[in-house]
Amino acid sequence: MLPRRRCPFCRRWFRPHPRLKERQKSCGRHECRREQKRRFNQKWRNEHPDYFRGTYALQKEKYGTRAEGKRRYREQHPDYLRRNAVFVRHWRQKVRQVPVSPTSSDPRLSFGCETTSKPVSM
Ligand SMILES: [Zn+2]
Description:
Blueprint: E1 5-6, E2 13-14, H1 30-47, H2 55-63, H3 66-76, H4 78-97
Antiparallel strand pairs: 1-2
């Protein structure tokens, strides 16, 4: 049987799992494993500082910015433009029909008395 060890996070005694042996760093409780993982990730990021850097720059170089990609998509798909124009027109009509409450930030919700929540015709 493996000797008991102390968890470096909660300071409790524990016996390592027979298969993990000395590789087991914490007692195995959720919080201690999480802390162990957090520290390991931090260490790994310090050892590989450039790993997560420059991804967007590389993508931008290859595919262009998001706005450029959208513009290109709209140029290549005129049917999308028409469909979207119809959708936006209907959506605007729907938004105008819903009564606007002076107190609510959500235009679809209306509370309060009858005089303030009447639909406004434009
Ligand atoms: Zn622990």
